[in-house]
Amino acid sequence: MRKVFLLFMVLVSVGCLSQNKQILYNFTAVPQSLMTNPGADVSYKFYFGVPLLSGISVNAGSTSFSAYDLFADNGVNYNTKLRDVVHRSSRNDKLAFNEQIELFSGGFKLGDWLENKGYISFGMYQEFDFMMFMPKDIAILALEGNRDYLGKSFNLGDLSLRTEMLSVLHVGFHKNITEKLILGGRAKIYSSAFNASSTKNSGYVYTIPATNTVYEQVIYSDLQLNTSGISEYIAEGYEGDAVGDIRKKTLFGGDLGLGFDLGLTYYPKKNIQFTASILDVGFIKHSKDVETLTYRGYYKYEGINPNFTGANTSGSTYQQFVDAIPRDTIYSAYKTWRPIKINSSYQYSFNDSRGGADCNCTVSESEYRNAVGGQLFVMSTPRAPMMALTGYYRRNILDKLQMKATYTVDSYSFKNIGLGMSSRLGAFNVYLMADNLLEYKDLAKAHSLSFQFGFNFIFKETNSPY
Amino acid sequence: MLLVLLSFSCSSNLDFDQVNDFKLEPVFIANLTYFEIPANQFIENGMEQNIAFDTQEFDMFRDSFFRKNLRRADFFFEINNTINRSYSIDIILLDENDQPLYRVHFDVPAYSGTQKLVTRTEIFENATLDLLKRAKRMGFVITMGAGPALNANSPGSLKLRSSATAYLVVE
Prior knowledge:
The structure holds 2 protein chains of 2 kinds. Chain A is mainly β.
């Protein structure tokens, strides 16, 4: 019990995921921005990322509580803190964690230096996702029982979580269709090492006063947990190297799926830019090592009812319960949809007195030093979509140093300030982005944190053939 | 930049060892048992049956989690007799060899026109809780006291309902 709880706490305290990369989005100095918009206005002759170090990103967050709320060294009894956290949260509070590491990445321009045949980008990344809604009613039932909640219907549908480890192999293409419009797309092959999802649950448990029996007690349950790639590790007697096995399966031999990204950049005027993208429209078919557990049924518990007229009938109440809400294991394949992400931005660019209008920029690269804009991020979840609104300011400080500052409002925080910079030293590019900078004042109280960094070699397009 | 950020950042003291204090103390309520015997059921072939009995499976403790973490159980009983006869009711917990472990005895007065509930709460803790955990069956013995004869049309019933409150401590 304690082990399970510890595992849960580790997952929870690491936090939560939103997968919003508001600083990276449309930060076209960094080729990885193509991963948030395959139609981003990025140009290069060719580039490649430093293997394993070209793109590392971590997102963690919790809408309802911070590590401080649970683990503060303040003398308050731990169980009191736990109870407070549960009562303060709502069933729509989320805990999530997302981590991505690029294994390799690269890209090149098609055709000769004057031709406009488009750009290819490709790569492979590994991703871990965990997301869970606060199972509030179930937590209350476990923490306090039902005695003080006569008449309350506990919602079993509060249970909703999914977690997955996968690798993604992708190839993208983007091209200037006209001077004003860039379109791009990316095809993805997913390979899932493991997946567990339990998102379509419903049911209730209630106890109300009755007349013939002391209480009317009913449990209705329609719970389902889909897993793939996990059962062998949790089976008794497993003695292998789970971490090694999972790593192997992430790269090869996992469950396969297909998906795509689409995106565009449009300049209605020279200094106005509009972008939009939709990412991870795709599915994974889970067919290897699949186990689906279900608990479905209805049971009204009345207690032991002796029969004085002879025939011995009612038998075991335990057995009645098990028969009424049986645990079934199904071994058929199932499909999961990737969480779809939608990004959009609108940007206005300008020069100030310090600005150098005569920069030696390539055709598509902005010749403006400053830009302000707004971004919208939407991601599908098993319940209502997650949204975030960002305002930003971008500046080319030097030709080789760009920065972007963001202010984001979302369900985790109303004052999320982020900062990103990208710098070039010859062909070597370094970028670093972090958000929720205000939370660094006291990390323990942070509700969400995210950062991305990476190293690339970028060979720019030039205006001359050599 | 990250270094700069981290050098400015700090963190309140956290104590992750608190997880060791983790303790669930839920209290659950549930039905335990119930019956209702109409007066005419004490007549069989025109003869009064003065004794009724039955045993039923009692497998609350088949679940090892529950057996291990239960610290106290309260059984609440409420008897409502509307038959013009007195009764004694015994509820007996039996072990796997059908040997009695624990007995709850009620004297129920005859109905005289006004409702008179007989209630009782039995608390199982420590030694009695250990007895309770060994129980495998629950026996019911009802003995009817002397009084005016019953017939097939006699009004009233002998009604019992009961509930359990289980105090768990999960560490």
